[in-house]
Amino acid sequence: MRYHPLTILFRLWQFMKNHFVPGFVLFVIKGNSTFWLFEYGRYAFLFYASVHLIYIILNWFMTTYEFQDNQSFKLKKGIFVRQTSIIPFNRIQNVSQRTTLFHRIFGVTSLTFETAMDGVDDEIKFEVLTKKQASWLMDIVKRVEKNHTRLPETESKETIRIAEVHFSPSRRDLWKASFTSLSFLAVIPIAVSLYDKLEPFLPDPERYEGMFFQIINNIWLSIIIMIVAVCLFIVAGMFRTFVRYGKYEISSDDTHIYIKQGILNEVFFTIEKKKIQGLEMKQPLIKRLFGLAEVKLISSANSDFGDDSVQVNSLYPFLPMDQAVELIKKLLPSYSFDQEMVRLPKVSLLVKLLKPGWLWVIASLILYFFNPSIFDLHIPWWVWSVILLMIMMVNRFLDYYHTRYAISGDQVQWWHGGFTSRLFITRRKNVIEVGFTQSFLQRMFHLVSIQTKNRSTPVHIEGVADVPLSFARTFHQWYRERKKEVKVQ
Questions:
Q1: Mind giving me the DSSP string for 62-119?
Q2: 328 within 8 A of 315, measured Cβ to Cβ
Q3: Which residues does the UniProt record annotate as the domain YdbS-like PH (predicted)?
Q4: Long-range contacts of 112-115 (CB under 8 A, 24+ apart)
Q5: How far apart are CA 361 and CA 369, in angstroms?
Q6: How far apart are CA 194 and CA 172, in angstroms?
Q7: Interior CA angle at 404 toward 402 and 407, to 5°?
Q8: pTM of the model
Q9: How far is CA 432 from CA 32, 155, 276, in A?
Q10: E strand or H helix at 333
Q11: Residue 243 and residue 260: Cα distance in Å, rounded?
Q12: Class for the domain spanning 336-489
């Protein structure tokens, strides 16, 4: 079977979006220019676009997929060099359904099956397909996961999923998210980036130099322009937040967790509960001030679309702390949040403060030799060095203050971090590797650093530093019990 014919139009649309700026410059802004760079650039652009269009059509024609033994996808692709890939259904970790503005116009959607396999063929992506086909494909995978090998008919009705909705943000939650995310500040780098791309092709700025100085010399006019600009940034940021999280919904049934988000670009994410490798709760400084946290589901597949969209395996990033804990209990009853965690001994603070800060040393050397005028402030280099040292020490003190750890049954959790603190929870069977390191300073005070690895793309590495040697021994003994839980195939 070949992909949906609209895949050709979708890929052409993606090409136009990615090459809009150079095309606009060559054919609109500099359309009448006789300079050789722009004149030959237009021919090169047209040639490149024509070749890419031919490639899109041939690639669609030569790429096929089929179901092999009702247990795996068989993909064939390649124009000059043919490549065949077989991906079993049981290797699929996550299912992501995304409906962009393009898909909404044509009444279609897209579907991505993310696997635990490494390499370029670690996912099966259907860029365009009907919603009925998407539901059918998801039903196939879900039935195989439940050991039902019978392939459903294409004409069968959509499987009804009885899922309980656990969270949907209110309007107040969205307002709070708009400010705590600082999304309105995202407009500034976007505008600066766009200006940098177009600056070489804009008219000579000296023509407008007089007007510019008239504006900045008029204090009231400058203040009004700044206020209007800030208001526009805030409105644009709030619109960005409402579009992204306006229809956010977290639900689950006995076996799966479902996350739905987006207004213009809809994303529907599915992950099987038993394939979750761990949980990560993150609190940057500004979220900690508002008592908010973000919970991320760690799985073996990579759920980042690589564009402006957030990772869909992340729960709502602005959950109140208590609500985040309750949500974890509802979604994953097998995981528990242990409130009574052990803090680091006071000697750990001494070790953290005495550790050499190589980044600070390098920054101080740069300040000493180059003596840059930062923000046009003529301040001696050693003052900036002292400020950096104070920031580093505060971050280390916060890391000591936040770091806690606990082992409960087959579950381990620790909370650590400075300005951004993180809580990590995982089960023993999901930890594929542990490591212990001990520096000379740690050896003097009988402290150890522990590192764990979980399956993810890339491998998820967590660790806690400067814990007592006694806990490291307990942790090692605890991990050795894993061989009783994991069966080697």
A1: H-EEEEETTTEEEEEE-SSS-EEEEEEGGGEEEEEEEE-HHHHHHTEEEEEEEES--S
A2: no
A3: 60-137, 248-329, 400-477
A4: 113/73, 113/87, 113/137, 113/141, 114/299, 114/301, 114/302, 114/303, 115/87, 115/91, 115/300, 115/301
A5: 12
A6: 32
A7: 160
A8: 0.76
A9: 62, 43, 14
A10: none
A11: 13
A12: mainly beta
Q: Which amino acid type is present at position 412?
A: V
Query: First and final CA of the chain: distance in angstroms?
Result: 33
Residue 52's SS3 state is helix
> Which amino acid type is present at position 215?
I
Q: Tell the residue number behind the tokens 């879900």, with chain if given.
A: 142
Domain spans in the chain, listed from the N-terminal domain onward: 171-245, 336-489
Q: Which residues of 51-64 are buried (b: 16+ CB within 10 A; e: fewer)?
A: eeeeebeebbeebe
Q: Enter the tokens of residue 449.
A: 């650093």
Question: What are the E-state strand segments in 340-403?
Answer: 342-343
- Collect contacts of 364-373 with beta carbons under 8 A, ≥24 apart: 364/388
Which token pair is 437? 């390191």
Is there a contact between 183 and 237 (Cβ–Cβ < 8 Å)? yes
In order along its 489 residues, the chain shows pLDDT tens digits of 899 999 999 999 999 999 998 999 899 888 888 888 889 999 999 999 999 999 999 999 999 988 887 788 888 998 888 888 888 887 888 888 999 989 999 999 999 988 866 555 567 899 999 999 998 888 887 776 665 444 444 444 444 456 789 988 888 888 888 777 665 555 556 555 555 555 555 555 555 555 555 555 556 666 777 787 778 777 877 888 888 888 889 999 888 899 998 888 888 888 888 889 999 999 988 888 888 898 998 887 655 554 544 455 788 888 888 899 899 999 998 888 888 899 999 999 999 999 988 999 999 999 888 877 766 667 888 998 999 999 999 999 999 999 999 999 999 999 999 999 999 999 999 999 999 999 999 999 999 999 999 988 778 899 999 999 999 999 999 999 988 877 654
DSSP-assigned letters across all residues of 134-178: HHHHHHHHHHHHTT--PPPPTTSPPPPP--EEEE---HHHHHHHH
Q: Which residue has the tokens 């040639």?
A: 47
Measured CA to CA, the distance from residue 366 to residue 454 in angstroms comes to 38
Residue carrying the six token digits 């006995």:
254
Q: Which residues are within 8 A (CB) of 395 and not within 5 positions of it... i.e. 6 or more apart?
A: 418, 419
Instruction: Compute the distance between CA of residue 43 and CA of residue 27 in angstroms, rounded to an integer.
Output: 11
CA distance 227 to 145: 56
